Each structure stands twice: as structure tokens, then as C-alpha cells.
Amino acid sequence: MNNAVRACCALWVAVLMMVWPAQAQLYETRADSAYLIDADTGTVLFSKNPDKLIPPASLAKLMTMEVVFHALKTGRLTMDDQFLVSENAWRRGGAMSGGSTMFAELGSSIRLEDLIQGVIVQSANDGCIIIAEGMAGSEENFAQFMTDRARQIGLQRSVFVNSTGLPAEGQFVTTRELVQLAHHMWAEYPEYYRYYSQTEFTWNGILQRNRNPLLRMDIGADGMKTGFTTESGYGIVGSVERGDRRLFLAMSGMTSEAQRAEEARRILDWGIRSFEKQQLFAADAVVGEARLFGGERRTVPLRANGPVSIFVPTMSRDRMTARIVYRGPVDAPVEEGQQIGALRVWIGDTLSQETPLYAAESVGTGAIHQRALDAVQELLVGWLR
């Protein structure tokens, strides 16, 4: 296809698969930003301002721990490694700072496993700074590692300026990416994720309890973290597991600790009780077709890499919309297994799932007259798309 034709027809094409009337949001929350997913299918159960940039507060410590867990998994660190408590960590993160601390003693050395528990259970700012300095030489260097690592695992908007989440200009996350991070840590580091369900930890003779209120509720919670800043309010990242269901939640913008606990519990209960799994397409089933340009056939069948399932509202089954989306027409030849587009499914006005679609078979290049006919057709009607 020449450049002129390409300019006319290189548009997104959406093929309607099944449509029911879209309506208002399925659920209401007092949180300013919230994002809730099912871990197994990736179904987005609820979404409210999920891409709004917010100061992370102590939720940034999830990224701090991801960097640590990655270093443990790759062998760069061991749980028995010792980290020195510098005067900077002691002053900025210790008792005299007025923030969350594990009361690390100046000049002492602490095992990494103890620091991990201090950060996760006690939300210890001194523990974060001690780790940052020990791994990267300075907290500034470590924060750059955090941002770089965030990009590596698919977080495209989050930026970290320090290891603690303390207020800093230019430090932001989103609830969507916090959920992505939480799901990644659970899936990638099961041997370390367990620390998030630990209810208490004692260091330097001082016992402190985990600040995550979900752990004190009988709802199947096993993580992850709370945070607060004046600018963004009270926030939380949480996960619950009941039976064969696991949900991940991030919320921000609550006005009090009590409201945070209440809103988080309410939406997690709703997410478990109000949805049921539905298979849309079996493994190897043809989901739809994509138009081809210059092929020996006009279309190529599409399928996912496995069964396509989604959790749908039990009381509102008529609120689902699904479309195949691809950039086309697709140039022939096409190889079997080549990614062509995606199946996007909405529940109400929330994009709940996006599944990659691949060519179900190979299609070769057509004869010259067929390619010429396709080019003329695109010049005539391509601009209408």
C-alpha cells in the first residue's frame, strides 16, 4: 500500500460483537479515585478517576519493596545482608522525625529481613532510607531506580522522588498503577508477599501492629498498605482472597481513617458478592475477523491465546459491550499467531477487560489485481472510517 493510501486508511477499526445499553456507574464510593480488579481474569470491576495523578504517601513503599524483592529474586541481595543505620536515616526517618519509624539505632547494622518487616508492618521511614542508602548509595539514586523499575514492569506514569513517600515535588502515582503494582508483587514474589499479612512486628523492644485495617476484618484480606497526605487524603491498597476469588483494590481521597476502612471493606465485599464468572469464548474459538489489504482472502479469523472469561454483574447482565479493535486493514501476508488487535469489553461505562487477539491462520499475499482493487477501495471509502 502506498503512503497516500496508508494515510487515508490507517485508522482504528472497531467491529461490534455484542451490545447492551450502557448505563451509569455500577457502584458509588466517596473515594476520589478508585480501581478494583479480579486477579484471575483481569476484569476491572470498578473504576473512578483511575489515572488521576496523586501523591503516593506511604503507598510509595510498595515500589520500594518491589525493588528489594526483585534484587532478592535475582540474587543481588540475601535476607541476611546487613545494612548500616546512617545519621541521615536516623534523623530523617527515626523517632525525632515524628513520622512512622522502626526506631533503628544510629550506627547499628540491621538484617535485610528485619528491615523488610519494619517497612511493611510498621511503615518505617527509617527502614526505607536505610535500604535506599545501602542499595544505591543515596536515597536520590534509589528513587531513580524505583522509577526505572516501575517502567520495566509496565507502570508508565508513576514517578518516585524518595523511598518513603513523604511529600516531595514531582512524586506521583495513580490508583490504576498501584493495582498493577500490587498484582505484580503478588504474582511475581509469592515467597515475599506473605509479609503483607503479618499483623505485628517488634524491633528495638517496641511492638507495633500493622496499620492496614483490612487485616483486622474477617474478609479474607492479606495485604497490602495504607497512606496519608494532606493533599491526597487517606489512601489504601488492599487485597482479599475468598475461595477461588482474589481482588486487588486501590483507593485515594478519603477524609479519615474510619472512612478509608469503611469504604475499602464495602467495595471489596461488593466486588466478591456482586459478580460471577462468565466464559465469552472457549479456547481456540474464533472471536471475529479482521479485514486484510492485498491478501489472497479479504479477512483473517482472530482468536485469543486461551479461553476468554470475565466477571459480570449478577444483577445487571444487560450492561456489557464488547468490540474487536484493530488498526486496519491489515497488510498481507499474515502469519498464524501474529497479534492483530484486541477484544475490549465494557461493563457499563468501565472498560473492564482487554484481551489480545491473534491471527488464527496464515493468509498469503494476493495477486496483483487483488492488491490494486483493495487500493482503489481504500481510496474511495477508507476516509469514511
Structure in words:
The protein is an alpha+beta fold and 385 residues long. The chain has three domains: 3-24 and 279-384, Peptidoglycan synthesis regulatory factor (PBP3), Domain 2; 38-52 and 174-200 and 210-273, DD-peptidase/beta-lactamase superfamily (Beta-lactamase), CATH 3.40.710.10; 55-173, 3-Layer(aba) Sandwich (Beta-lactamase). The protein is 29% helix and 30% strand. α2 crosses α6 (139-152) and α4 runs antiparallel to α5 (125-136). The radius of gyration is 25 Å and the shape is globular. The model is unreliable at 1-24 (pLDDT under 50).
Task: Label this structure with key terms.
385 residues; globular; disordered N terminus; 18 strands; five-stranded antiparallel β-sheet; Beta-lactamase; alpha+beta; single chain; Peptidoglycan synthesis regulatory factor (PBP3), Domain 2
